[in-house]
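Before going further, learn to read the protein records used in this course. The integers have meaning only within a learned vocabulary of local backbone shapes. The record below shows the convention in full.
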Amino acid sequence: MESSLLLFRPKASEDVKTNRLQQVLDYAFQGISYDPIEFANQLSPLNNRKILFAIDLGNSGINFEYYHFLKWLRTHSNSLCGCTAAILVDGGSELYTKSIASELVFSANLAGCAFVGRPLVEGTRTLDNFTILSQNMGTDSFGAYQESARILVKRLLENSFPVHKRPNILALHASIRQTSNTLALWQQVKIKIENSCDLTEINVRNGAVSDCAGCPYTTCLHFGEEGRCFYGGVMVEQVFPAIKKADALVMLCPNYNDAISANLTALVNRLTALFRQTRFYDKAVFAIIVSGYSGSDLIARQLIAALNMNKSFYLPGNFAMLETANNAGTALKLPGIDDRIEFFCDQIILVLKGSSSL
């Protein structure tokens, strides 16, 4: 009988890599049946399944079979349509767990896979990343690791993304309208979806958002409980209320030096105050990303790490429209661009309304 849960766990070549993660999985799966897949040649296109990716990294941060999995995902378009996933990564050093996770989430997402908000539980060599959580749970770091994995599996199995009769969408950008290829694409998307949604657009250009200054936890918590931030400004007056109201964010991100622009980075950092008070598990994040030369995948992975893995927005399948266009106006002249705009619009409506009808 087919289980409701698939475990994608690329077989590690050295058994020493697998011991700790196996203990965590045994604890997380108590009373839960699952179908394991260890080798890429066992993979086949799937629809509407729940998937837990579990990656053993060891000291080197390398699992050879994982790269066979990754190759399969990248060469089988739409192979995970309708699937929803979460991810466990266990490493033998303090490095690589998050970078491997964002790489895998991005590639699986391009294959159509959605991810729950905060989909990652990671175990570094020392498990120091569980220091605070273990205190809150009244256990040691390994106990917190096990319990976090169990909670993640439970959330994955119970997850269903909300649908809305008329969704509220917030678009955030820091671009100049006259020259921005990113905004030109958004304008075409907006025209197609505006009759089906309530749209809000906020421009945080020209220093409107001061970056997070790293207030003490108690200070940030105090202001966050009131839906405010110590530094106030457009974040508190416009962005926080708009995010609370929104069912989805659309991040409009040109590629500046292979990084999200400074104003949008500051905006994400400042969300911490609001995040202290409320989680965003029921809010989707989409993106339009335009690079002048290359590197749109880098921007997408930054958004995944910051908004999906950290701030808990859920990640719909094919969450980002990724384009390469340099001179102003060229994005709308790219071969096949109308079809890709149509697909992106359909995806937004399908995710938020449960219907592809615009």
